[in-house]
Structures are given as structure tokens and as C-alpha cells.
């Protein structure tokens, strides 16, 4: 009887071992085939950011092109005198396609830029919050507006640096006309031409003012957007927040406010960057010489020199050329980007949001 018990127990043990090994083998094989949840979450976050950037930028493409044309147009040969007149002029001279010239290149740049920016912000804010809690000793501490500003600045610098050559090329394609000294057939042709004729450094003309400008711009975008949302959810003024959730309209308003604050502060650096990109390619700015009738191309040597010459020859207001169409563009663009990002992540089933 005792021997039978031993045999039975041994058999049960053997069967249990075999079952456990089979289950482990199955789990191992499934682990090899299926991506990890973290990897899927990263991919979904990048996709959401890319979609948000493409949708928001295409929606305001005509205003984006007009802004650049206003920034770099010759002050002695004014073609664009404001938003409405400028859009009508483009429509009359170039047709409907002219309103969206350069948008393909713009989306090719903004989609990866937006994907990297949103993802970088989430990672930066998570790490900054971890450091903040560790230093303060408060495990329940939350991100402050200043910490969000820092996380946004990090995200902006990373995204801008990673996609800057595309931005440089996009600017040239946007202002390109039949009279331009060079005719670029597309994104890759422009990149190869600039690289071959002007060298690799030309792809990063205006990078410094771009990085300096992106710190307050992107940083304030994220900080203002999230801080506004938090404030509305906590205080619930006028019944705007219900059950700790904001409506799409309210979130759009938060994004619009964030975009307005950020772009107003950073706009002069955007003008400087654009002018530095156009040096040697198109007579974007000219000065009056001699008797006041002759004109000569205005060349820039660095960020400080561009600031100085722009203010000296065109006045301080030149640093805000194109601000009106840019404001009209930024208000819906930033708003659409934030809300689209959150909505796409909801559709894809990603729990983490920027405000979380």
C-alpha cells in the first residue's frame, strides 16, 4: 500500500512538472511572438503624436505659407499686406494649390517632429517627476508649472534638433517661385541639392535661434495647456468640468491659449531663423543704399547679426512680421494637435495621457 502511495505521488509530481514546463514553454513562445506592452505603448504614443501633427498642420497650411512669405519678403517690393489680402493674392496668382505649397514637406517634417515631441515630453515629465519626488521626499508630489515648462523645453529641443534639416528645406520650398535662383523638385531633391552645393552646415542654418526659441515656445505650450486643464478640473468654473473630464471644446480653448502665449514670446526668434535659412538663396531682405533708390541684398552673419540688421534697417516691428496670420494659425493648430493627440491615444487604448 505504501509503495502504491509513493508511485501515485511520484506520478502526480511528474505530471505536474510536465504541465508546468509546457506552460512555461508556451508563455516563452508567446513572449517571443508578441511585442511587450511597453513597446506597444511607445508605438501607439508615437503614432498619436504623428497623427496630431499632420492633422493640425494641414488644417492651417495656407496660413503657414503666408506667414513665411511675410517673414522673408523684400521690404521694398511688398506683395503681401496682411492675412486676407495675402491669401487672396496667393489664390489669384497661384491658385488653390498655391495655398498648400510646401505642405507635403511640412507634414513630412511635422509628423516625426510631433511624434518625437509628444513622446519626449511624456518621458521627460515622468523622469522629472521621479527626481522631484525623490528630492522632496513627497511620494504624492505632482508636476508644477515650472517642472512642466522644463519637460516641454527638453521635448522641444530634442524634436527640433532631430528634424531641423526638414524644416530648413520646407522653408525654401514654401517661398519658392518661378523666379527663384534654384528650383527644387521635392523634399529629397532639395536636401541633396543643399548638401551638395552649400555643404552639410547649410542644413542647420538658423538652428541656434530655433533651439533658443523652442524652449519658451514648446515649454509654455505644454505648461499652459496642462496647468489650465488642472485648474479647470479642480475649480470647475461655470460647470466646464464634469467628473474630472473636460469637453473637447474646453480642451481646444486650453490649447488655443497655450499656443497664443508660446508663439507670441518666441516669434522674433522664428523670424530670425527663417531669414538665416534664406541667406544666399533668395533676396528675402534688401537695404536702400546711395541715394535711397538702389538696393542691395542684405546678408546675415549669425543670429545676433540678423537681429541687429533686421531692427536697424526695418525697425523693431520687423521681428513680428507675419505675427497676425501666425496667430490665426497657431490658435487652432496647437489646439487641434493637443486634442487630436489625446483622442487618438484613447482610440488606440493607451492609458497614459500628457495630463496624467
Total beta-strand segments: 4
| Shape summary | globular
Determine the CATH superfamily. Answer: Mitochondrial carrier domain
Largest sheet: 2 strands, antiparallel
Family: Belongs to the mitochondrial carrier (TC 2.A.29) family.
Membrane topology: Multi-pass membrane protein
InterPro entries: MCP, MCP_dom_sf, MCP_transmembrane
GO biological process, one term: transmembrane transport
Describe the structure concisely.
The protein is mainly alpha-helical and 356 residues long. Helices cover 73% and strands 3% of the residues. The protein contains eleven helices and four strands.
How would you characterize this protein structure?
This is Mitochondrial adenine nucleotide transporter ADNT1. The chain is built from 11 helices and 4 strands; from the N terminus they run H-H-H-H-H-H-H-H-E-E-H-E-E-H-H. The protein is mainly alpha-helical. It has a single domain (37-348), classed as Mitochondrial carrier fold (Alpha/alpha barrel), CATH 1.50.40. The strands form 2 sheets. The chain has a two-stranded antiparallel sheet with strand order 1-2.
Keyword list:
two-stranded antiparallel sheet, globular, 356 residues, Mitochondrial carrier fold, single chain, mainly alpha
Secondary-structure topology with pairs:
Blueprint lengths: L1 H32 L3 H23 L1 H12 L10 H17 L3 H34 L8 H31 L11 H12 L8 H29 L5 E2 L2 E2 L1 H31 L7 E4 L4 E4 L5 H12 L8 H26 L8
Antiparallel strand pairs: 1-2, 3-4
Amino acid at each position: 500500500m505504501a509503495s502504491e502511495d509513493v508511485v501515485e505521488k511520484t506520478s502526480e509530481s511528474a505530471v505536474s512538472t510536465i504541465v508546468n514546463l509546457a506552460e512555461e514553454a508556451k508563455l516563452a513562445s508567446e513572449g517571443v511572438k508578441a511585442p511587450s506592452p511597453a513597446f506597444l505603448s511607445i508605438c501607439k504614443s508615437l503614432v498619436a503624436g504623428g497623427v496630431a501633427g499632420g492633422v493640425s498642420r494641414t488644417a492651417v497650411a495656407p496660413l503657414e505659407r503666408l506667414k513665411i512669405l511675410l517673414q522673408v519678403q523684400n521690404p521694398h517690393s511688398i506683395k503681401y499686406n496682411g492675412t486676407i489680402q495675402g491669401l487672396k493674392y496667393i489664390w489669384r496668382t497661384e491658385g488653390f494649390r498655391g495655398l498648400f505649397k510646401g505642405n507635403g514637406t511640412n507634414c513630412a517634417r511635422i509628423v516625426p517632429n510631433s511624434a518625437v515631441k509628444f513622446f519626449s515630453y511624456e518621458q521627460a515629465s515622468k523622469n522629472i517627476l521621479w527626481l522631484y519626488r525623490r528630492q522632496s521626499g513627497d511620494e504624492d508630489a505632482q508636476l508644477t508649472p515650472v517642472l512642466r515648462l522644463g519637460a516641454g523645453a527638453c521635448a522641444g529641443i530634442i524634436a527640433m534638433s532631430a528634424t531641423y534639416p526638414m524644416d530648413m528645406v520646407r522653408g525654401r520650398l514654401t517661398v519658392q517661385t518661378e523666379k527663384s535662383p534654384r528650383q527644387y523638385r521635392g523634399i529629397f531633391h532639395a536636401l541633396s541639392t543643399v548638401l551638395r552645393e552649400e555643404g552639410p552646415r547649410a542644413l542647420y542654418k538658423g538652428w541656434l535661434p530655433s533651439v533658443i526659441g523652442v524652449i519658451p515656445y514648446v515649454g509654455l505650450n505644454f505648461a499652459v495647456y496642462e496647468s489650465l486643464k488642472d485648474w479647470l478640473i479642480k475649480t470647475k468654473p461655470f460647470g466646464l468640468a464634469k467628473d474630472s473630464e473636460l469637453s473637447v471644446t474646453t480642451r481646444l480653448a486650453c490649447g488655443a491659449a497655450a499656443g497664443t502665449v508660446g508663439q507670441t514670446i518666441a516669434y522674433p526668434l522664428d523670424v530670425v531663423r527663417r531669414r538665416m535659412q534664406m541667406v544666399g538663396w533668395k533676396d528675402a531682405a534688401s537695404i536702400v543704399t546711395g541715394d535711397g533708390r538702389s538696393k542691395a541684398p542684405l546678408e546675415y552673419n549669425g543670429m545676433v547679426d540678423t537681429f541687429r540688421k533686421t531692427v536697424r534697417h526695418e525697425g523693431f516691428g520687423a521681428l513680428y512680421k507675419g505675427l497676425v496670420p501666425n496667430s490665426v494659425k497657431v490658435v487652432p493648430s496647437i489646439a487641434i494637435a493637443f486634442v487630436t493627440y489625446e483622442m487618438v491615444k484613447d482610440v488606440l487604448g493607451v492609458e497614459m495621457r500628457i495630463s496624467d
